[in-house]
Amino acid sequence: MATHHSHYDPENSTTHYTVLPDQPESAGSGHRKSLKVVSGILLSSFFLLSLVFVIVNQSSDLSQKNSHSSETLTPALSRGVSQGVSEKTFRDVSGGSLSYYPWTNAMLTWQRTAYHFQPQKNWMNGPLYHKGWYHLFYQYNPDSAIWGNITWGHAISTDLIHWLYLPFALVPDQWYDINGVWTGSATFLPDGQIMMLYTGDTNDYVQVQNLAYPANLSDPLLIDWVKYRGNPVMVPPPGIGVKDFRDPTTAWTGPQNGQWLLTIGSKIGKTGIAIVYGTSNFTNFKLLDGVLHAVPGTGMWECVDFYPVSTDEANGLDTSYNGPGIKHVLKASLDDDKHDYYAIGTYDPVKNKWTPDNPQLDVGIGLRLDYGKYYASKTFYDPKEQRRILWGWIGETDSEAADLLKGWASVQSIPRTVLYDKETRTHVLQWPVKEIESLRIGDPLVKRVNLQPGSIELVHVDSAAQLDVEASFEVDKAALEGTIEADVGFNCSTSGGAAKRGILGPFGVVVIADQTLSELTPVYFYIAKGPDGRAETYFCADETRSSEAPGVAKQVYGSSVPVLDDEQHSMRLLVDHSIVESFAQGGRTVITSRIYPTKAINGAARLFVFNNATRASVTASLKIWSLESADIRSFPLDQL
Fold first, then answer.
1. Which among 600, 501, 583 has a CA at the least distance from the CA of 548?
2. Which of 156, 232, 343, 472 is exposed most, by the fewest CB atoms within 10 A?
3. Structure letter (DSSP) for residue 202
4. Organism's domain of life (predicted)?
């Protein structure tokens, strides 16, 4: 593929942008040779998520590796913390001992998802849209299914569902990124040039920000990338730790002519902060005074995201939008507790300040994007469909030994659109992109079931492992209004799961269960009445009986979810083998679950609907589609 370059000196440029020249420091040699080992690629978009897929060479016979009997394992080594990033090794939090389980070929093969993006093997970051293709860049370990040797994988798609793996985009081959090419974000300039800023881990383990750009903008596949010869373009400023300076956002236009601004996450003591840099050419940056925002007690902020949402329109906005009818979402991934928090507020670019609408729902102390296994998320603006799309990293919650055995770890969430919730004015609404519906097979199964207290009913579906389930529940009004008993202090995580019965719940859907219900994962609503008689609804996912295997997480996830007076309780579930993404009330509250059943696999998996309340009857209305598998494979070598 021919490459054309315009002559341009980025070091002496101010506000005029043209195609940057190729430099001696290429983004990595042997791109085309590496195609076969680039097995995992995240959806192509402008920001580089801090998602990481890891893949190891799989044995042709997993059961041969698994021939030894059950034994207690030495806890896995910590990975990532010594380099200043969040812990990448899953620590068992279910309370049981970390035991080896004799996984079979069938069990491990079943765990691999069918329509979520993941590499073919190993450990699995900026997405963008360019010349008809969505590009997904993701953190990837080409050597193993554990975190390390972080390289940028690259994949492309025309619909965000079916993906083609391309050669590596960026590899750790310079002093400023030799210990890892980490999270980054892409910015489109007015003339079409793409500026990719990313965090590199230097030979001295210092976190710095670097610039890369396409070698050939006319190439729709963006195969070749060039690292700027003057890297790094930002280093930790005074007062910021050398391991506390990472994950630059997509830039937006500032109040000064030709100015671009971006934010980077950090901390001072235990206060999480977002600092802002300005630039006119993406090679010279100035730290602005003060901070965009800070929240005491929240610790290190990773993968900060900052973007506008319309309070009037039902479409996404480019990152530079501001003005009347606009709110700004600030999101941070908290290194201390490994969750993604967000808040909605007002941005003043002149004062370099973002202010939350509700200080009680500030970043890190209020709402989460997802209450399950979900981290390091990032959005990008899709100009093709005028929408903002959110991606997140779904890590594993089994043992590192099991990941090495199966040969891969971690996947990408289904891309979600993000809109401002006009009804609550406190939440965003997350919803699977419409393209997922292209995987639906035929007409849906439509079913209406009256569920008496303490009942469960089997729902006959062709394949319970790949489903799109829409369910709404109408609670008996007499029981709802007549209940005066207070249920104060209910909490999904400490409630005991779906087995705990109350007057008004739980009720919902059971996914990935076996016929005898020895393994099952309920996703459900629970209505609790307060002392004042007001009802509060909780949306929970119970993994406590999801697997008979030890050494995997078995938690109850969830949170409260606003249900307005004219709304029924509604949920949508995307079931894809070992992943369940659950959306309540149009996406006000979302939970991602990782499950590792030993019995409820293949043809033995079942779907149920249930009502475990003690007094209220519930009428469930279901629409269920079986889903095809996505086509995720390598780009044809002869076409590169």
1. 600
2. 472
3. -
4. Eukaryota
Q: Which are the contacts of 104, defined by CB distance < 8 A and separation ≥ 6? A: 62, 63, 66
In degrees, rounded to 5, the angle at the alpha carbon of residue 285 between the alpha carbons of residues 282 and 290 is: 135
Report how many helices (DSSP H) and strands (DSSP E) the chain contains, helices first: 4, 40
What whole-number distance in Å separates Cα of residue 112 and Cα of residue 53? 13
The number of beta carbons lying within 10 Å of the beta carbon of residue 326 is: 17
Q: What are the CB-based long-range contacts (under 8 Å, 24+) for 286-289?
A: 287/237, 288/261, 288/352, 289/352
Neighbours of 365 (CB within 10 A): 16
**Can you say how many angstroms the Cα of residue 434 is from the centroid of all Cα atoms in its chain?**
17
Closest listed residue to residue 581, CA positions, set 511, 513, 516, 519 = 511
Phi then psi for 637, rounded to 5 degrees? -60, -35
Task: Report d(CA 124, CA 43) in Å as an integer.
Answer: 12
How far apart are alpha carbons 481 and 445 in whole angstroms? 32
Helix, coil or strand: residue 575: strand
Question: What would the pLDDT profile of 596-620 be if each residue is shown by its tens digit?
Answer: 999 999 999 999 999 999 999 999 9
Are 510 and 455 within 8 A, CB to CB?
no
Identity of the amino acid at 536: E
Please state, in angstroms and rounded to a whole number, the distance separating the CA atoms of residues 380 and 249.
Answer: 10
- With contact defined as beta carbons under 8 Å apart, do 258 and 293 qualify? no
Q: How far apart are CA 358 and CA 125, in angstroms?
A: 31
- β-partners of residue 505 are 502
DSSP 183-199: EEEEEE-TTS-EEEEEE
Which amino acid belongs to residue 234?
Answer: M
**The 579-584 sheet, strands edge to edge:** 445-451, 618-626, 466-475, 569-576, 579-584, 589-594
Please count the residues of the chain.
Answer: 640
Distance CA 591, CA 540 (A): 8
pLDDT in tens, 261-303: 999 999 999 999 999 999 999 999 999 999 999 999 999 999 9
